[in-house]
Design a protein that fits this description.
5-stranded antiparallel β-sheet; two-stranded antiparallel sheet; about 35% helix; globular
C-alpha cells in the first residue's frame, strides 16, 4: 500500500477540481512525485519539489514548442496543462514504447554521470538487446538539447 502525503493529495484534488477531472487510479510514484490516470486518458503528475517540477515543465515546454510527440519510435507524453503554484503537470497517456519522466532531465549541458563508463555499462546491462534502440532515443533527445540521465525500465519502455 502506498502512503501518499496529504499535501500531495490536496494539490492533486485542487487541480482536479479546477479542471473538472476525475482520478481513476494511481499508476506510478517515485522520488519526484506521484502519477494518477484520469478519466480523460490523461495523467496528472504531482511533484514533491519545485526544482524537479521546473525541470520537467521546461522539457515538456521545449517538446511542445517543437511539436515532438514521438522520437525514434518512442511515444512522448504531450503537455496538456500545468499548474506552477501546485507543481502539477497534466500529460497525455502513452503506451509502450515510450519515454517519460523528465524531472531529472536537463536542457543544455549533459549531466556528468552520463559520460561515466560505469553508467553506460549499467544501462547496457539493464536494457540488453534493446540498448541500441534506447541509445538512438537518447541521441535523438540530445539533438533537441535534452539530456536524459534517468534511464531505467520504468522511464523508457521498449516493449509492451
Amino acid at each position: 500500500m502506498v502512503i501518499i502525503p496529504s499535501e500531495i493529495e490536496t494539490r492533486r484534488d485542487e487541480y482536479c477540481r479546477a479542471k473538472q477531472l476525475q482520478i481513476v487510479d494511481l499508476i506510478g510514484f517515485g522520488v519526484d512525485g506521484y502519477v494518477w490516470q484520469t478519466e480523460r486518458e490523461s495523467v496528472v503528475k504531482v511533484c514533491r519539489y519545485k526544482a524537479p517540477f521546473d525541470s520537467e515543465l521546461a522539457v515538456y515546454q521545449r517538446l511542445s514548442g517543437i511539436g515532438l510527440r514521438k522520437l525514434q519510435g518512442f511515444d512522448i507524453p504531450w503537455l496538456l496543462d500545468f499548474d506552477s503554484p501546485r507543481w502539477v503537470l497534466e500529460l497525455s497517456f502513452v503506451s509502450p514504447p515510450f519515454v517519460l519522466d523528465f524531472a531529472a532531465a536537463s536542457l543544455g549541458q549533459a549531466p556528468s554521470e552520463m559520460a561515466a563508463p560505469e553508467w553506460l555499462a549499467e544501462k547496457q546491462r539493464m536494457f540488453g538487446r534493446d540498448w541500441p534502440d534506447v541509445q538512438r532515443l537518447l541521441d535523438g533527445l540530445r539533438l533537441y538539447g535534452i539530456h536524459f540521465p534517468d534511464v531505467h525500465l520504468g522511464n523508457i519502455r521498449v516493449r509492451k
